[in-house]
Design brief:
216 residues; mainly beta
């Protein structure tokens, strides 16, 4: 929408692709739309890029808030429970400050061992999401994939991650990189494990919000 209020540009994306859209293991629908995103332009060097950030109205969905004290990741650091009553829809706000790590990573997983691996690689300058072990994947040979996006080597990363029953949407550094993936876990992800390669980093801020959405 280019005629949105206050001169905003708002987009909704179809959250799928034709490689497997007709085969996803869902009933009554074949993938949903993404959350609304506000689009803007920013300049980096001599180039102009598109930024995509969650529309501010998404804040109204927040319910229960849980904050975790800052901690240092030297090898691995585990949080065994994100929310007490996790129905599958929540938002993560994570701020990372690199000290000496080449790779800053974390895995969102459940008690069945299903997980999604998020990786910020400072050496290769890319962000990846690995859903090959995310849950139900056998419906399509193309679905178990690792997706990637370019990032700048900055040392500081701010992430907003929206998790729903069948999707994860991640926005980094004010929307300078964004990624959406379908996932089909057999139960909600409710644990997280941070890991590092080649050094250490700090998780300077970690906040979890339960989201007030229809989870029937």
């Amino acid at each position: 929408w280019s005629n949105a209020p206050e001169g905003r540009y708002i987009a909704l994306a179809w959250m799928s692709n034709w490689q497997y859209a007709n085969n996803v293991p869902t009933m009554q629908f074949r993938s949903s739309n993404s959350i609304p995103r506000d689009l803007s332009l920013y300049t980096q060097g001599k180039e102009i890029y598109l930024a995509s950030t969650p529309s501010p109205e998404m804040i109204s969905l927040r319910k229960e808030k849980k904050e975790v004290n800052a901690f240092k990741v030297e090898d691995t650091y585990n949080l065994d429970s994100l929310l007490n009553k996790n129905t599958g829809a929540f938002e993560l706000n994570i701020d990372l400050k690199n000290i000496s790590a080449e790779v800053l990573g974390f895995k969102l997983f459940n008690s069945k061992g299903e997980y999604v691996d998020f990786c910020l690689n400072e050496i290769e300058k890319k962000f990846t999401m690995d859903r090959t072990k995310s849950g139900i994947t056998s419906f399509s040979k193309e679905f178990p994939a690792i997706t990637s996006a370019p990032i700048e080597k900055s040392g500081n990363f701010s992430l907003r991650i929206f998790v729903d029953k069948a999707s994860i949407e991640c926005f980094g550094n004010g929307g300078k990189f964004a990624m959406t993936n379908l996932v089909f876990p057999n139960e909600p992800y409710n644990r997280i494990s941070f890991y590092t390669k080649g050094g250490t980093y700090n998780v300077s801020s970690f906040t979890i919000y339960d989201l007030n959405v229809n989870n029937k």
